[in-house]
Amino acid sequence: MLRSRPFPRRAAAVAAFAATAAASAAALAAPAVAAAPQTGGGSAAKRPNVILVLIDDAGYADLSCYNPRAPARTENIDRLAREGVRFTQFYVNSPICSPSRTALLTGQYPARWNVTSYIAARQENDARGIAHWLDPNAPSLARALSGAGYATGHFGKWHLGGGRDIPEAPLITQYGFDASLTQFEGLGDRVLAMMETAPDGSGGRKMGLGAASEKLGRGSVRWVPRHQVTKTFVDGALGFVRDAEKAGKPFFVNVWPDDVHSPFDPPADLRGDGSKKALYRGVLVNMDRQLAPLFDYVRSSPALRDNTLILVMSDNGPEPGAGSAGGLRGTKGQIYEGGVREPLVAWGPGLIPAARRGTVNQTAVFSSVDLTASILRLAGATMPESAAAPGGAKAAYAPDGEDVRPALFGGEKAAGRTAPLFFKRPPDRPGPPRAPLPDLAVREGNWKLLLPDENGASAAQLYDLAADRGETKDVAAQHPDVVARLKEKLLAWNRTLPAAFFDAAGVRVGEWNSTAYGIVSGARKRGIRYRGRTETGREEH
C-alpha cells in the first residue's frame, strides 16, 4: 500500500503548479507570431497537417545529417534536413522513454504525472513509485487537435501504459486518437516482432515482451519480422493520411518506430559483422529506408507538401555501446547532455521560408513541451480542461511549454524558449555508488547546473555549454552567484512536482528499493550494485 509523504509537500506542489495556470495559459494563447500560412484549397488546407516521427533511443550524432562521419547513412532523413531546418540545441524532457513521450503528449514536465521512468510490469512500477499508465484525464495534444477538427492517428510504440502484465490500462484511443496501431508497449491493434527470421520472413522466435502482450488481448495481433515492423507502421500511417485526405480533414499523425531500441535485428544485408554496433547501424539504416514512402508521399503531393509539417526527433539519448552522443557527456537515462539533447529536423516547404531551408539553427534552445505548445498554436487548437494532477479534478491547462514557431519557421537567430529548462533523473538510474548521477538539472541561457540530490545539500556542478558542451569542466567554484541563483530556481521547480510516495513501512518508493530488480538512489548508501536488463527475454524497456 502506498501513502503520501506525511507532510504537506503534495498539497503545496499542486497549489504552486495550479497558481501558474492562468498566466501560462494566457501566454500560450497570446499571438506570438503571425497566423499559420493558408495555402488555398479546402478547409484542410487552412490548418497544417503534422507528422511527428519519434525515433526510439537514437543518439545526437547517429543521424548522418548530424554527423558526416556517421557509419550509418540515414539518407531519407538527411534529405528532409537539406530541405528543412536542423536544430542543434533541442532537448527532450526526460532521458528515458515513457516520461519523454508523456511530455510530448501533455506539453508538461512528465514528473507532474508520476511518470519518471519507463513503465514496466506492475511490481516494478510499484517498486519505483511510478504510474502504471498515464492518467487518461491528463492533457492530450491529440485530444485538443481532435477537438479542432483534426484526424488523429498513432502508429508505433506507445509506452504510456498497456504492456507487460497490465491489461486494464486505457486504450490509446482514450487519449484522443481516432486510430492506433502499436507494438507490445500498448493496447489496441498491435504488430508484434518475430526475431531472427529467415530472409523470406519465415521461422524465427517470438520476442519475449510480444508474447506477453499477445496474452493481454484487447486488440488484434499480427506477428511480423522485427525488421519489418516500422514498414507496417508506415503503411498504417499512409492509409490513415489517405483517408483524412478523402474526408477533407487536416491530420495529426504520430509515427514512433521502435526498431532502433534493442534488441537489434536488421535484415541480413545490414547485419555487418554481427557486433552490437553493427546491428545498431543496420536497424538505423533500415528504419530510415522504411520511413521513405511516407516522406515521399507527402513530398509528391503539392497539396500535402505545401501544408504539412514533418518533425523527426529521438526520445532520449543512445543506449551505451550502441549509438553515439557525438562528444556529449552521458547516455540514455542520464540528465547530462548526451541523455537529453537530441536531434530535431523540421520539414515544411509551405511553412518554412525558402531562405531558411537547408539551414542549421545553432542558437534556439527549446524542448519537447515547446513543440507541443507550438503545434497547438499552429493548428489553432487549445487544450481543454483536464486533470491538474494524477487523479485530480479538472482545471485550466497550465503548459510548461512555450510557442517557439519563430524558431521553427523564423530566422537563423530566432529565439527559443525564454524560461529555464528543468530535468529530473529517472529514479532507477542512480549510477554506480562511487560516482552517483545527478538528480536534478536546469539549463538557463548557456549555463547548466546539476544537483547531486534533490535536497540541494551536496555540491552542485556548473557548466558553460557555450564553451563546454561536453560538460568536462565544472566551473561552480568560479561562479558561486550563478550556482546560488540556478539552485534556487531548480529546487523551487522541484517543489512543484508531486511528492514522493512512501510504503506502509515508511520506505521511500521511487528509489528502486526492491532489491529483486536492482537499485537506485536509496541503494547508494547500501552499496548495492545496479543491474540493468535488456529486451532479450528479460526485457527492460
Report on the structure:
The chain is of the alpha/beta class. The protein has a domain at 49-382: Alkaline Phosphatase, subunit A, CATH 3.40.720.10. Helix content is 29%, strand content 17%. The protein has helices at residues 9-19, 21-29, 43-46, 75-83, 97-106, 122-128, 141-147, 208-214, 229-247, 276-300, 302-305, 337-340, 368-379, 405-409, 480-495, 521-526, and strands spanning 2-4, 49-55, 85-91, 151-156, 179-181, 190-195, 205-206, 221-225, 251-256, 308-314, 341-347, 359-361, 366-367, 386-387, 394-395, 421-424, 440-444, 447-451, 461-464, 501-503, 508-509. A hairpin with a 6-residue loop joins strand 14 (386-387) and strand 15. It is globular. It starts with a strand and ends in a 15-residue tail after the last helix.
Characteristics of this structure?
disordered C terminus; disordered N terminus; single chain; four-stranded antiparallel β-sheet; alpha/beta; 541 residues; Alkaline Phosphatase, subunit A; nine-stranded mixed β-sheet
Binned, the helix content reads 25-40%
What is the average of the pLDDT values?
Answer: 86
User: Which blocks of ≥5 consecutive residues have pLDDT under 50?
Assistant: 1-14, 16-45, 502-539
Shape: globular
Structural class: alpha/beta
Rg over C-alpha atoms, rounded to the nearest angstrom: 22 Å
Question: Distance N terminus to C terminus?
Answer: 25 Å
Number of helices: 16
CATH superfamily of the domain at 49-382: Alkaline Phosphatase, subunit A
Task: Give the number of DSSP strands.
Answer: 21
CATH hierarchy: architecture of the domain at 49-382? 3-Layer(aba) Sandwich
Give the biggest sheet: 9 strands, mixed
